[in-house]
Design goal:
By secondary structure, this protein is mainly beta. It has three helices and 29 strands. The chain has a single domain, classed as YVTN repeat-like/Quinoprotein amine dehydrogenase (Methylamine Dehydrogenase, Chain H, 7 Propeller). Its main location: cytoplasm. InterPro entries: eIF3i, WD40/YVTN_repeat-like_dom_sf, WD40_repeat_CS, WD40_repeat_dom_sf, WD40_rpt.
Length: 345
C-alpha cells in the first residue's frame, strides 16, 4: 500500500515498508469527488461531488452522518465554519447555499449568474466569500457576504463584489485574520483580494498553467498550490513569497500540508478524459508524499482507480483523506512508524 522512494538504509526501509493501515472507503457519491474538507476538530469530513449531494461523515470510522439535499447541479466546493455550526456549498446550479450542520436544514440560498467554483468562511464564521465562473457571457466575480446582516442575504446583495476580468478564479482560501482572500487563477496567477476594499494587495505568477487547488497550513502562515503545470508550490500567505517547489510528471489536482510533520501530500494523475486509455499503474493515480523542507518525494500510496481530485490532512496529522474521479473517498491512517520517520541527508 505504501511505497518508499529514494536511497534509504535497509533499516529505514523495513521500518517504513508498511506504514499504512487498511484505508476506510467512503461510498456516498455516484460521480467523481470535487472537494473534501475536515472540520476544525477533525471528527467530521464533508465531501462534495459532481452529483447533487453534499455528504458528512464521521472520520473515525467512515460512517455517514447525513446529507445536505437541495442542489440541482454538480457541487464544486464545500466549507465548514470554525465551530462546526454552519456548512457552505457552491454548485453549478448557479447557487451558493448555507446549511445548518447538525440538522441539514437550508438556512440561505444565494443565487448567482454562473456556477459557484470556490467558497469559504472566514475565521470568525461571520463573513463568507465565493467566486463564480466566467461562462455564458458573465465574467468571474468574487463576492463577500456578511451573515450578520440578514438584509444582504434577503436581497442577494453582497457587501463587496470584485470583478476578475483577466482570468477566472479556480481556487481560493481565506488568509490569516480574515483580512484578505488568496485566490488562484486559470492563468497561474495568485492574487490577494482585500475583504474590505476588494483591491488586489499582492500578485505573483509562479505557475504557467491553471491552479487547481490552494490549501493553507494549520496556522495559516503558508499556502500550498496545486497546478496543471505538474508542480505544487509553497508560499508565505502574507507576502506571497515563493518558498518551495514540488515537481511531478502529471498534473497536480490537490495538495495539502501536514499539521504536525514537515510533509506535504499531493494528488493528481492524468486528465480524466485520458483515463480509459491507460492502466492504473501508468496513470499515476497515487498520493505522493514530499518532504516540505528538502522537496524530496519519499512515499506513494495507491488505491484510486482514477485521478485524485482532492486531498486533505486530518487536523491531528495522524491520517489523511483523498477523493478521486472514481467517486470514492479514502481515509488513510498512518502507523506509529510514520511519525518516527526522518529523512536521511
Amino acid at each position: 500500500m505504501w511505497r518508499i522512494l529514494g536511497c534509504w538504509s535497509p533499516s529505514t526501509l523495513s521500518m517504513l515498508s508498511c506504514t499504512m493501515l487498511k484505508p476506510i472507503l467512503l461510498q456516498g457519491h455516484e460521480r467523481s469527488i470535487t472537494q473534501i474538507k475536515y472540520n476544525r476538530e477533525g471528527d467530521l469530513i464533508f465531501s462534495v461531488a459532481k452529483d447533487t449531494v453534499a455528504n458528512v461523515w464521521y472520520s473515525v470510522n467512515g460512517e455517514r452522518l447525513g446529507t445536505y439535499n437541495g442542489h440541482t447541479g454538480a457541487l464544486w466546493c464545500v466549507d465548514c465554519d470554525w465551530d462546526t455550526k454552519n456548512v457552505l456549498t457552491g454548485s453549478a446550479d448557479n447557487s451558493c447555499r448555507l446549511w445548518d450542520c447538525e440538522t441539514g436544514k437550508q438556512l440561505a440560498m444565494l443565487n448567482t449568474s454562473s456556477a459557484v467554483r470556490t467558497c469559504g468562511f472566514d475565521f470568525s464564521g461571520n463573513i463568507i466569500m465565493f467566486s463564480t465562473d466566467k461562462q455564458m457571457g458573465y465574467q468571474c466575480f468574487l463576492n463577500y457576504f456578511d451573515l450578520r446582516d440578514p438584509q444582504q442575504i434577503e436581497d442577494n446583495q453582497p457587501y463587496l463584489t470584485v470583478p476578475c476580468a483577466e482570468s477566472k478564479i479556480t481556487s481560493a482560501v481565506w488568509g490569516p485574520l480574515g483580512e484578505f482572500v488568496i485566490a488562484g487563477h486559470e492563468n497561474g496567477e495568485i492574487n490577494q483580494f482585500s475583504a474590505k476594499s476588494g483591491e488586489v494587495l499582492k500578485k505573483v505568477k509562479e505557475h504557467n498553467k491553471q491552479i487547481n487547488d490552494i490549501q493553507t497550513s494549520v496556522d495559516l502562515t503558508m499556502v500550498i498550490t496545486a497546478s496543471k503545470d505538474c508542480s505544487s508550490k509553497l508560499f508565505d500567505s502574507t507576502t506571497l513569497d515563493h518558498i518551495k517547489s514540488f515537481k511531478t510528471e502529471r498534473p497536480v489536482n490537490s495538495a495539502a500540508i501536514s499539521p504536525i510533520m514537515d510533509h506535504v501530500v499531493m494528488g493528481g494523475g492524468q486528465e480524466a478524459m485520458e483515463v480509459t486509455t491507460t492502466s492504473t499503474r501508468i496513470g499515476k493515480f497515487e498520493a505522493r508524499f514530499f518532504h516540505a523542507a528538502y522537496e524530496e518525494e519519499f512515499g506513494r500510496v495507491k488505491g484510486h482507480f482514477g485521478p485524485i481530485n482532492c486531498v486533505a490532512f486530518h487536523p491531528d496529522g495522524k491520517s489523511y483523506s483523498s477523493g478521486g474521479e472514481d467517486g470514492y473517498t479514502r481515509i488513510h491512517h498512518f502507523d506509529p512508524q510514520y511519525f518516527d520517520f526522518e529523512l536521511e541527508a
